[in-house]
Amino acid sequence: VKVFRFFKLFFGVVICIMLFLLFLFVIHTGHRPTDVKVFAVVSKKTNIYGKTIPVQTSISSHRKVITDSQNNSFSTPLFPFIDEGSSWKDPFCDEFLSNKFSVEMKPCGTSSHRVMCYGSPFDDKMGTCMFDGLAVDPKTLYQIMRDDRESVQTSNAIWLLRDVSSVNPCPDPVFDLMEKHMVKGNGVKQLAKTSILSVPQGKCQTWINGTSFFFNCYDNHIYFKFLSWYSLHNGILNFESSSGKLPSLIIRIPETKDEFSHADYEHDLFPEAKVMSLHDFSEMYDGVTCFEHVILTPSAYSTNAFRCKMADAVGRIHQKCYNCNGRGLPGTRFMTFRRRALAVCSLEDDPNRKKEIHNIVVQVRKAYLRHSTDNLRQFHRVLANSDELINGLKTAFPNANVLKMVAEDMTLCDQIKMVHNADVFMGVHGAGLVHLWWLQDTAMLFELVPHSQMSNPTFKMLSTLTGRRYFGFTKIKGGETKVIADTPAIIEELKKQF
Q: What is the DSSP letter of 387?
C-alpha cells in the first residue's frame, strides 16, 4: 500500500510539472516578438491553383499578432463609422474623391479574375490592380525598383503563379484598356504588365496567406509621402469594406534611393498589418516568395489629391475639384485619413475652438533635397526675412504665441501637434505645407506664394478638399532661391481674416 501511494504521488507530481511546463510553452509561443524570423514548415496546403505546397510561417509571429488583432483590438473599426450623409453629395466628388474606380480591366480575358485592374473615367493617370496568386523574387525586385524602375518590365522579378499543369494563366493578354486608362509611367500598370508577361523563375520558398498590399512611397519628400500613405489608406478601406478582413502584410516599394524617414510613424499609422520595406523583406526572405492575393495601390502622383491640382488632367477636372469642398463632411476619405494621422499622435479636435488668433506657426524652410538627384538651388525657397516677420507678428499680436517651426529638427508627431494647435499656419509654398491637413476648423493656412508658384494650386486645392481655411498671399519678392515677405501687408491681411 505504501509503494502504491508513493508511485501515485510521484506520477501526480510529474503530471503537474508537465502541465506547468506546457502552460509556460503556450504562453511563450503565443507572445513571441513580432520581428522573429521563422521559416519552419507548419503544414501542407492545397492552394487556389490546386497545387500542394509547403505552407511556411511567413512572419509567423506576426501572423499571431494579426489573429489577436482580428479577435480583440480590431473587433470594432479603427475609425468610427460615418454615415453617408456626411460625405460627398455631388456625383463627381463622390465618384472621383471616394476612389470608386469604375473602369474595370481584365487583361487576362473577361472570364479570368487572375488580374483585375481598375481605372477612373475622369483621369487616365490613376489606377489600382489586384492579383490572385503572385510570385516575387524579392532581392531582384528591390534592386530594380531602387536603381532602374523602367527595366522591371524585362526583369522576370514578379510573375503570376502557374497551376499544377504549369499552363500560363494569361497566354493572350490584352492591354488596350490599360493603355487607355493607365498611361505610360504608371507604376501600377508597369508591375501588372510585368507579372503577366514574365516567365516563372522558381518554386515558392515562402507562402503568404491572405491579401498583401504593395505601395510606393517617397523616402523624404513629406508631401508625396503623405499622399502615398493616403493612397494606401484608401486601398485598405476599400478592401476592408468589401471583404471584412484585414491585410496580411504591407510592403513599401522605394520611390528613390535615399534612406526612408519616419518609419516609426508609418508603423503606427497602419496598425492593421505589419509594414515592411521591400529592402527588409528581401533581406528576410531568400528565394521566391508567393502571395495568395496582392493589391497594388496608386502612387502619390496617381492619387485624386494630386490629380485634382494638375492642369493636364483629362476634362480639366481641377476645375470640378474646386466644387468639392470638404468642410463639414467628416465622412470623406480625406477626413478619415486625417483622423488616422492624428490618432498616431494622440490628438483630437476641440469642438469648442473659437475663431481667434492664439497661436501662429511660421514654417521656415531649410535648403533641402527632395531626393539625391535634385539640384539644391532649385528647391529651397528660403524666407530670407523670417526673423523680421516673426518679430513683426509678435508685436502685432501681443497676446498670441508666435512659433518658428523648422520641420527638419522635429519628429513628425511634433510637427503635426504644432500645426494642429495653430490658429494660423504660415509658410512659403513647399512640401511642408501638407501639414495644413491637421488644422482645426477655425484655423487657416496662410500661404506665401512666390511668383514662380502662382500657377501651382497644390495647397489651395488640398485646403479645399479637406475643408480647411486658406489664404494665398502674393505680395512677396523673390522666387525659387530667396523669398522676402511684406511683413506689414501680412499683418494687415491677417487682421482682416480674423
A: H
The single-letter code of the amino acid at 404 is K
Report the SS3 class of residue 442: coil
The helix (run of H) or strand (run of E) holding residue 52 is strand 52-56
Which among 220, 160, 222 is positioned nearest to 194, based on CA atoms? 160
Q: Which three cell numbers stand for residue 205?
A: 520558398
Helices and strands in the chain: count of H runs, count of E runs: 16, 18
pTM exceeds 0.85: no
**pLDDT profile of the chain (498 residues), mean per 10:** 65 73 48 28 30 34 28 34 65 88 92 92 90 94 84 85 82 92 82 92 92 92 96 93 91 85 95 94 92 95 92 70 94 95 97 96 75 52 91 97 94 98 96 97 96 90 97 85 90 95
Under 8 Å between Cβ of 445 and 425: yes
Closest CA to 354 of 417, 446, 442: 442
Q: Estimate to the nearest angstrom the gap between the alpha carbon of 336 and the chain centroid.
A: 13
Return the C-alpha cell found at 422.
495653430
Q: Which residue has the cell 509571429?
A: 61
Distances (CA, A) of 290 to 156, 275, 352, 373, 413: 14, 17, 52, 34, 36
Grid cell, residue 302, equals: 496617381
Question: Would you say 294 and 131 are in contact if contact means Cβ atoms under 8 Å apart?
Answer: yes
